[in-house]
Write a structure and sequence with these properties.
- This protein is an alpha/beta fold and 260 residues long.
- The protein is built from 11 helices and 7 strands.
- A hairpin with a 5-residue loop joins strand 3 and strand 4.
Length: 260
């Protein structure tokens, strides 16, 4: 049964989609069958995997609103073992349309239940908001990865509410330092504060600022297909290994965890 991990932070520009695409791609390269559910109306995960948004006729929107079977909407990507449940701009209206539906907070969970057994990992990429779609994504998840630059307070409160009333088994998979630059005082201050407050819940791997990571989406590729040797590729492979170790899905020794 696949592990469902939502990647969330209500602040934009912290690396949610970059992490969804590249962590999923790294796990796919390591031969774990992986799915990305694009739950953002901007559909950056969909375009970042090389799909033309104009050609996406059926998406996660139809699954949420019209109860379309997600198995009929899944797309194969350029990378073996990596699949996508796409998004498009129609998802903007979904929150309003879902308001009067019964169990509206659990619509995404219903979608995930139909397909998660097909994968080792399912990642849900969220929009930079704490609206009903993001609430759905967190409710559907086994755990949450939180990319960190700032903006944790409201999200942590939302997670507590979900744990209390909608998804008591929800865990925090980890806090991920993104866009990290050891030369900048602000990066070091954020890292210090996050590690001080959350300690072992912070991933050892930090995603450093990397030009190739920024360029890859415009070519419609995960960074590992764009430049397998760059720092960004190594960062996300290390993060993938850390996720596997955390979930006891690898027999790798600690000394082998970090790429040289």
């Amino acid at each position: 049964m696949g592990k469902v991990i939502t990647i969330a932070n209500q602040k934009g520009g912290v690396g949610k989609t970059t992490t969804a695409i590249n962590l999923a791609a790294s796990l796919a390269v390591l031969e774990y069958k992986t799915l990305i559910i694009d739950a953002d109306p901007q559909a950056n995960a969909t375009s970042g995997l090389g799909f033309d948004l104009k050609t996406i006729k059926t998406s996660v929107y139809e699954c949420l609103i019209d109860d379309i079977d997600p198995k009929n909407v899944l797309l194969e990507t350029q990378l073996k073992n990596l699949y996508l449940l796409p998004s498009n701009i129609d998802l903007v209206g979904a929150e309003i349309e879902m308001l009067n539906q019964p169990s509206r907070e659990k619509k995404m969970k219903g979608i995930v239940e139909k397909i998660k057994d097909m994968y080792d990992f399912v990642f849900i990429d969220c929009s930079p908001s704490l609206g009903l779609i993001t609430l759905n994504a967190i409710t559907a998840a086994d755990s949450v990865i939180i990319p960190v630059l700032e903006g944790l307070g409201k999200l942590l409160n939302t997670i507590k509410i979900v744990q209390k009333s909608l998804n008591p088994s929800l865990e925090i998979e980890g806090f991920l330092l993104t866009m990290y630059d050891s030369r900048l005082n602000l990066s070091n201050q954020v890292a210090e504060e996050v590690r001080k407050h959350f300690q072992t819940m912070v991933f050892h791997t930090a995603i450093t600022r990397n030009v190739k990571l920024g360029e890859a989406p415009s070519y419609g590729k995960p960074v590992i297909l764009y430049d397998a040797t760059c720092t960004g590729s190594n960062n996300y492979l290390n993060l993938a290994r850390e996720v596997l170790q955390k979930n006891e899905m690898t027999k790798m020794k600690n000394s082998e965890k970090i790429l040289k």
